[in-house]
Amino acid sequence: MRWLLADPQIAEERAWKQHVVAATDRWWQAFQANSGNIATSFSRNSKFDIVQFMHDNLGRLHPDLCWEYGPARHTENQRSGGHRLVITPEANHWLRPVTNYLLSKAPAIPNWEFYAHRPPESVDHVYRTVEARRHVKVQQAGIEARIGRNRKIDLLYTFPKENWTEEKAHAVAFQITETLMGEETLDTWIGGIDVVDAREPGHRWLTLDRGQSLVASLAHSLREQLPAQPLWRIDKGQAKWSNYQMEPERDWPEYPYRSDLIFGTTCDFNLVEGYLSGKLFDSRCHSRHQEIFCYLKIDATEVPDSRRVDFRANLEDPLDAALQQEQVGGSIGGGSGLMYSYIDLSLTHVNQGLAIMRKVLPQCGAPLRTWLIFFDSQYSREWAGLYPQTPPPPVFAEDDEE
After folding, report:
1. What is the pLDDT of residues 206-253, one digit of tens each?
2. How far apart are CA 105 and CA 61, in angstroms?
3. CB atoms inside a 10 Å sphere around CB 373
4. Cβ distance 155 to 178 under 8 Å?
5. How far is CA 70 from CA 38, 90, 107, in A?
6. Is residue 105 classed as helix, strand or coil in its secondary structure?
7. Average pLDDT score over residue span 254-282
8. In the chain, where the domains are located
């Protein structure tokens, strides 16, 4: 279900927005009224049922929101015995915009801090968390970090004193990563997480206490290597364009997202490959200018194959010119599929860019089934139709299960 781009003219989406707003207000009223009881619930003698309270109040907003209490992180709150509350959708990344809204409405409550991601923790805390959640004790661990594909950081672990199954070792490695690096770094920057034998040559193992600074340094390095200007400002005549081909499954009745893509071209192959890999995508890995990467999906079923390139160019060129003129974005590539044509975009102002699209593209004959869709995992349920009567885009069956 859309949140940021929900259409108030659609009853279901209007009801969803009203539900979130009302449930958010009720949640913070309940929390503020019970903040003292919540703080004392962490003592053994408390009779306040914190689990039931969270279920009855936060759970009503959405059952997939997870929560975790802990000590305050800011020094002044630590001194006064303050607390923190993390509210996160965990793997339900499409709920991130809703979570951000929820936390943006948090009242100022003395000695309380609120976060949208589990924060990075100390090594001692990491070991305690692994024992509590994975039911094993880590006697010794080594970590190695490398820059991987698509501007992500790959992590390798070794546990030389353990004799775990491969499944258990990987579960522990993931738990260490989430707890040591923090949930936001995990979702944004971490690519692969693997476990190897300590005797395998060619590795430079570090202790876990050096892991946070190592990953932070690599992430900083990756950002420093990004272009000094937004990607949409690229000189298209001087850019190094890359072509790529896909082999989509045929004979589907519909093709969600870019699943019908056959051929594409891009000025940033890492960006497109990162999205097509199916792993978590975050625009911050590909720009330091607050760009949002997205694409237009355009119904081309009525366009002969021989005219597909011209069809897309007749839409892309005037749109790119209009976006560039207003300095809100531009085109950065495109592609052709079995049923659809695609125009890849970089936008610095989504709403302004969408308004321009809705003005320019109808004049160019864009079809009814034209949608703006986003690369970022947290915006995977967000979309906008070109026309008021544009139907929802096709989605995979599991995306309908909310």
Report:
1. 999 999 999 999 999 999 999 999 999 998 888 899 999 999 999 888
2. 14
3. 18
4. no
5. 12, 17, 18
6. coil
7. 95
8. 11-115, 123-224, 231-400
Alpha helix positions (H), 182-253: 183-189, 211-224
Phi, psi of 152 (to 5 degrees): -115, 165
Is the pLDDT at 398 greater than 60, yes or no? no
Looking at the chain, how many residues does it have?
Answer: 402
- The mean pLDDT of the chain is 95
pTM over 0.85: yes
149's tokens? 């594909």
Q: State the architecture of 231-400 in CATH terms.
A: 2-Layer Sandwich (3.30)
Q: Work out whether the CA dihedral 91, 92, 93, 97 comes out positive or negative.
A: negative
Burial pattern 176-211, b for ≥16 Cβ within 10 A else e, equals bbbbbbbbbbbbbbbbebebbeeeeeeeeeeebeeb
Tell me how far apart the alpha carbons of residues 120 and 179 are, in angstroms, rounded to a whole number: 6
CATH no. for 123-224? 3.30.300
What burial class does residue 281 get, using C-beta atoms within 10 Å of its C-beta: 0-12 exposed, 13-18 middle, 19+ buried?
buried
